[in-house]
Amino acid sequence: MKVLIIGCGRTGARLARRLAAQAHEVSIVDNAREAFLRLGPNFAGKTYQGSGLDHDVLESAGSATADIGVTVTSGDNRNLMIAQLLQHKYGVKRTVARLHDPVRAEIFHDMGIETICTTTIVEGLLENFINQGHFPSLPNEISINGDASSLETM
Amino acid sequence: MSYAIIIGGGRVGYHLTRSLINNDYEVLLMEKDAGVFRPLASDLGDVMMQGDGCDPLTLKAAGIERADLVIAATGDDPANLVICQLAQNCFKRTRIIAVINNPQSEELFDKLGVRERVSVTAAALNLLGQKVSKGPVILLGALERSNIEVIEILVDENSPLLDAKLGDLSLPKGTLIISVLRHGQALIPNAETVFAQGDVLVTLIPQELEAALREFIV
Questions:
Q1: How many CB atoms neighbour CB A49 within 10 A?
Q2: What span, in angstroms and rounded, lies between the C-alpha atoms of B117 and B106?
Q3: Which pTM was predicted?
Q4: I need a labelling partner for A140 at 20 to 30 A (CA). Which of A27, B75, B117, B137 fits?
Q5: Using an 8 Å Cβ cutoff, are B49 and B27 in contact?
Q6: CB B147, CB B206: distance < 8 Å
Q7: ipTM of this predicted complex?
Q8: Which of A99-103, A126-130, B65-69, B135-139 has the least mean pLDDT?
Q9: For residues A88 and A93, what is the distance between their CA atoms, to the nearest angstrom?
């Protein structure tokens, strides 16, 4: 799949590495060149420095042919705007915006924009931990307690 | 009394607030940043509210549900878009105006149904363009909801329009000269009108014909 990731913070970089290792075609965009250091030396995808709101940057990163767009910059509003830009200007079929604010996340989800909310996820897991005495088990390789393996591969 | 909420206490938000107060609006100006908020609050008093206008809970606390007018005037287009979408979809407001900082954003705001927009950078560029433009054709602006531009054509001593009769000219089809400014008077031209030196022709033209018109005039 052609995956376009906007924002190369911890989440964006880890997701990009994981997907590239699964042989997905990954492009990742970030304002700051240093952010790409998080990808490590063996990253198989492509990096594009520039604003994720800039049409030229998105176009060179392949917005017109991406199968899915993921927006994980540090700003909720920016993630919502870029996800909608990918959807409505470039016709990207599937987009998902990462948000911290649960209220905005639900409102925009109801408006037809796929959102994932860090706050409600962490809140739910913690509630489970407190009431059940442990975290629920999550599917696949989702780690609740972190992952330091990147230390060795950097 | 109409109630207006303005989000963003920059220059646009501040001056707009003062002007709406003078026009008998009840106004609330919301600013997130404490450093920007404090001096505004000591100037405008009760009109000011400190808060993030992109947060639906804050908008609700500001009484957005009874607002007749919502203006998203921050310096950040993603914030302005979210404010407009919340006002539109979540709070069902009908009168919403967006300030657009980056001209590139305009297209998406339009696609997402934000109909009333003020593009501040584009407007400034346009005015600057008028000041620095040399030639006889000056772009004044574009009409909303169309691709029609308003331009001024100056008839100078080298103009091919000088002493020409409007009815004899083959201007690009679709060019509409709506008025001729002559000695400070606005005349309505007809096929018999003969252009004189110093005339300014106020003209409507589809954007795609502007280049052809410039070629015709120069």
A1: 14
A2: 8
A3: 0.81
A4: A27
A5: no
A6: yes
A7: 0.93
A8: B135-139
A9: 9
Q: Which of B56, B76, B104 sits opposite A104 (nearest CB)?
A: B56
Compute chain A's Rg from CA coordinates: 16
Whether the per-residue pLDDT at B126 is higher than 70: the answer is yes
Measured CA to CA, the distance from residue A87 to residue A106 in angstroms comes to 18
Please, which residues 45-104 of chain B have a Cβ atom closer than 8 Å to chain A?
A: 54-57, 76-79, 81-82, 85-86, 89-90, 102, 104
Determine the Cα–Cα distance for residues B81 and B79; give it in Å rounded to an integer.
5
Residue with tokens 């925009």: A108
Contact call for residues B47 and B110 (beta carbons, < 8 A):
no
Among the listed residues B217, B211, B215, the one whose alpha carbon sits nearest the alpha carbon of residue B199? B217
Q: In what order do the strands lie in the sheet with B116-119?
A: B48-50, B26-31, B3-7, B69-72, B96-100, B116-119
Query: Rounded to an integer, what distance in angstroms lies between the CA atom of residue A81 and that of residue B121?
Result: 19
Q: What is the pLDDT of residues A13-25, one digit of tens each?
A: 999 999 999 999 9
